[in-house]
Write a structure and sequence with these properties.
Elements: H1 3-10, H2 12-28, H3 53-64, H4 87-99, H5 111-125, E1 133-137, H6 140-159, H7 163-166, E2 176-178, H8 183-191, E3 199-201, H9 214-222, E4 229-234, H10 246-251, E5 258-263, E6 288-292, E7 304-308, H11 311-318, H12 347-381, E8 386-388, E9 396-401, H13 407-420, E10 426-430, E11 433-439, H14 447-462
Parallel strand pairs: 2-3, 2-4, 4-5, 5-6
Antiparallel strand pairs: 1-7, 6-7, 8-9, 9-11, 10-11
Bound molecules: pyridoxal-5'-phosphate (PLP).
The site of pyridoxal-5'-phosphate has 13 residues, from helix 6.
Length: 463
């Protein structure tokens, strides 16, 4: 063994203690450090010929890189939809690395069984029934990709084509209908050989709504003349967290032949609260469902779950049989269900957080985040210089300036807030209007943070 490696081995507990000390220090200052780092990163170094050992690497990281990392795990990072990491989830994540299990299958370890247990808990959390099976993937983009891959295989079944063998071209053009799809849906269609341009936009409801107009969807399906299609329903749009009427969309299957995929990346968490669960009424009828976990479950990056009712088709797409890996059987290993072969045990941080805080603890995070988003919405609404572009339906505030809301102005405001270090918000465009979004999904955010964000916005506007 190389001498430096042997040294590190002999001092492993001390090295882990040092890493723990660094992490604890960073986390203790998380709420007060600048939320975003806007300066340039250091130039890339040369590959070290001789290493420094673990302690040297830790010192180098602490000095050279850590100061430039954002406080995205903290309470006032409101860009995109960004969760933090609950204490138990973080502990679970550390142990994922320490145990370093390959959750590709069940051979030789209970790790895959833990993933099954966790997927079962999540299914229950989101109100899905036993007909949905699932697996962990890296994020909602991968979850949408898997769901749409199974949808593609289903289209093949309807048209008498084995897509996994003959390829997507054998299907001919595939109609994919959606009201307000996330950009990752287009990306998935590109990867799947269906094509980004096969995504047919369906009109959404009028005014400040982003939910699909169900009558327009009905008409668009009728226009296909009986050709089977894929419908992507949206449960929680990124701009205003609007929800398609999942029951009404699902009911269209009585008259039209389509696979129903629901992107519930963060909107799925509405199911945790009796007050908001009606927003995802009908989710259980979906053929495939995407839910992100590194957003509102507050587990570290990266983790999401995908669910489907047709595991047989999923295996047709993803099976990876070989003499050394084995063939998919009655209870197929995860390597036959997702794009990966070898897989990190992503379920462990989620298992830790659900075990530590339960449904109740995670419900409290969701309900508090919604209250805080509404609080910020009310503060902005009360001031003449800001306009809310939609009511705060759940955890995102979508707003703009009442005067001169140009793209440049909104981007400059977002930059000014980031440079001030108090908060991080991201610009968007809502129905043609440049805007800002403030998305609440961190488990540590409080009312005090909302006050600070509102004050930072006012300062940026007056500067
Ligand atoms: C965030 C998000 C995605 C993409 O998720 P990643 O985890 O970034 O891959 C997809 N759909 C919706 C609705 C989202 O909010």
């Amino acid at each position: 063994m190389h001498r430096t490696l042997a040294d590190d081995l002999s001092r492993l507990p001390a090295l882990l203690q040092s890493a723990r000390d660094l992490a604890a220090g960073e986390l203790a200052s998380l709420a007060e450090r600048p939320v975003a780092r806007t300066g340039p990163a250091p130039a890339a170094d040369r590959l070290p010929e001789a290493g420094t050992g673990g302690a040297g690497a830790l010192a180098r990281f602490a000095e050279r890189w850590a100061p430039g990392f954002s406080a995205s795990a903290g309470p006032r990072y409101l860009g995109f939809v960004t969760g933090g990491a609950t204490p138990a989830a973080l502990a679970g994540d550390w142990l994922t690395g320490a145990f370093d299990q390959n959750a590709s299958g069940a051979a030789g370890s209970w790790a895959a069984a833990l993933e099954h247990e966790t997927v079962g808990w999540l299914r229950e959390l989101f109100g899905l029934g036993p007909a949905h099976s699932g697996a962990f993937v890296t994020g909602a983009s991968a979850s949408n990709l898997v769901g749409l891959a199974v949808a593609r295989e289903w289209l093949g079944e309807r048209l008498g084509v084995d897509v996994s063998r003959d390829g997507a071209a054998a299907l001919g053009p595939v109609p994919v209908l959606s009201g307000s799809p996330h950009s990752s849906v287009g990306k998935a269609l590109s990867v799947l050989g269906i094509g980004r341009d096969r995504l047919l936009p369906v009109p959404v409801a009028d005014g400040d709504r982003e939910a699909v107009d169900v009558a327009a969807l009905d008409a668009a399906l009728t226009a296909l003349g009986g050709r089977p299609a894929i419908v992507v329903a949206n449960a929680g749009t990124v701009n205003t967290v609007d929800f398609d009427d999942l029951r009404a969309v699902g009911a269209l299957r009585e008259r039209h032949d389509f696979w129903l995929h629901v992107d519930a990346a963060f909107g799925g968490f509405a199911a945790l609260s009796p007050e908001f669960a009606h927003l995802v009424d009908g989710l259980d009828a979906a053929d495939s469902v995407c839910v992100d976990l590194h957003k509102w479950l507050n587990v570290p990056y990266d983790a999401a779950v995908q669910f489907t009712r047709r595991r047989d088709l999923q295996v047709a797409v993803f099976h990876n049989a070989s003499p050394y890996l084995g063939a998919p059987t009655g209870d197929p290993d995860f390597l036959h269900l997702t794009p990966e072969n070898s897989r990190r045990l992503r379920a462990l941080p989620a298992w830790f957080s659900l075990t530590a805080y339960g449904r109740e603890g995670h419900r409290e995070i969701v309900e508090r985040n919604v209250r805080l988003a509404r609080d910020l919405g009310a503060r902005l609404d009360a001031r003449p210089e800001w306009d809310l572009l939609a009511p705060v339906r759940l955890n995102v505030v979508c707003f703009t300036t009442s005067e001169a809301p140009t793209g440049e102005r909104l981007a400059a405001l977002a930059d000014a807030v980031a440079e001030g270090g108090e908060a991080f918000l991201t610009p968007t465009v809502f129905k043609g209007v440049p805007a800002l979004r403030a998305a609440f999904s961190n488990w540590t955010t409080t009312r005090d943070d909302v006050e600070r964000v509102a004050a930072a916005l006012t300062r940026a506007l007056r500067a």
